[in-house]
């Protein structure tokens, strides 16, 4: 618990000023975090140095192109996506004798590259649009996760499934309730008090649920590879993907709701 608290404090001391500042400092922070998240996936899938280098270049290329769109309406450039697909296709052909880099892993990498790229690009664009929207998204996922864990420990009896054995229905419902409540209060006090309250409740609840699905999605990956955490970059917390699993899904869902908020 001591390591968990200390690493969280250190992370907040580094992140909060850069997030508040925005601009280039935040951009570098976000790109570093995005790269560390991608590295955690590559560590599971790709061992060869040159293959990893090509994957990193493709990842940064798509991330940079997505950020340059600077709009959530056109966050994916299909011309760039086409280039990425061609690069991975050529990489697969180059490794036709490499049993550790097969068709399944190639398509897995394509999916993960697009998923992580678009989610982190979305977060960067949202921060450029509004610091308060950025806080709103993180508040939903953090509060949902925090209360889900606490309520699950205290009152949880009914397990959800085998993907994440410690998660219970009581925890998920309690986490969603308090995550939505706190996030709605933040939105009304700091962003827009004139919004339709029922619309706000609906959107916030959907984002909370999708964030929890993101948690389960990455838990499934860990279960498949028989690992507890994606890395140990944050002692007591695990890796980047262990901390950003919910917000990755919530940020992508936010694209569809931004026009209503």
Structure description:
It is a single chain. The protein has nine helices and no strands. The protein has helices spanning 2-21, 23-45, 49-69, 78-94, 103-129, 131-155, 169-190, 197-224, 240-257. It is mainly alpha-helical and 261 residues long. It folds into two domains: 1-129, no CATH class; 131-261, no CATH class.
Short synopsis of the structure:
This protein is an all-alpha fold. Helix content is 77%, strand content 0%. It is globular, with a radius of gyration of 19 Å.
Which features characterize this protein?
261 residues; mainly alpha; globular
* Integer tally of domains: 2
What characteristic shape results from the CA principal axes? globular
Number of strands: 0
Percentage of helical residues?
over 70%
**The biggest beta sheet, please?**
none
Oligomer: single chain
Task: State the separation between the terminal residues, measured CA to CA.
Answer: 38 Å
Percent in strands: under 5%
Low-confidence stretches: none
Helix count, DSSP H or I runs of 4 or more residues: 9
Q: How are helices and strands ordered from N to C?
A: HHHHHHHHH
Cα-based radius of gyration, to the nearest Å? 19 Å
Q: What class would the helix/strand composition place it in? A: mainly alpha
Query: Averaged pLDDT, please?
Result: 90
């Amino acid at each position: 618990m001591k390591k968990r608290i200390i690493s969280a404090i250190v992370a907040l001391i580094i992140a909060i000023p850069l997030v508040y500042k925005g601009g280039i400092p935040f951009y570098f922070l976000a790109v570093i975090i995005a790269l560390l998240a991608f590295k955690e996936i590559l560590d599971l899938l790709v061992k060869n140095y040159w293959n990893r280098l090509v994957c990193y270049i493709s990842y940064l290329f798509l991330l940079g192109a997505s950020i340059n769109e600077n709009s959530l309406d056109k966050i994916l450039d299909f011309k760039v996506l086409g280039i990425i697909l061609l690069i991975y296709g050529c990489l697969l052909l180059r490794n036709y004798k490499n049993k550790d880099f097969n068709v399944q892993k190639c398509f897995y990498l394509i999916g993960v590259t697009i998923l992580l790229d678009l989610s982190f690009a979305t977060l960067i664009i949202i921060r450029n649009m509004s610091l308060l929207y950025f806080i709103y998204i993180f508040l939903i996922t953090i509060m949902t996760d925090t209360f889900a864990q606490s309520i699950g420990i205290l009152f949880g009896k009914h397990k959800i499934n085998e993907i994440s054995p410690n998660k219970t229905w009581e925890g998920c419902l309690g986490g969603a309730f308090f995550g939505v409540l706190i996030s709605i209060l933040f939105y009304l006090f700091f962003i827009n008090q004139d919004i339709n309250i029922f619309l706000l409740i609906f959107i916030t609840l959907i984002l909370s649920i999708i964030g929890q699905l993101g948690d389960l999605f990455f838990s499934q990956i860990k279960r498949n590879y028989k690992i507890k955490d994606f890395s140990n970059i944050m002692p007591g917390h695990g890796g980047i993907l262990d901390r950003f699993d919910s917000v990755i899904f919530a940020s992508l869902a936010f694209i569809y709701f931004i026009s209503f908020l």
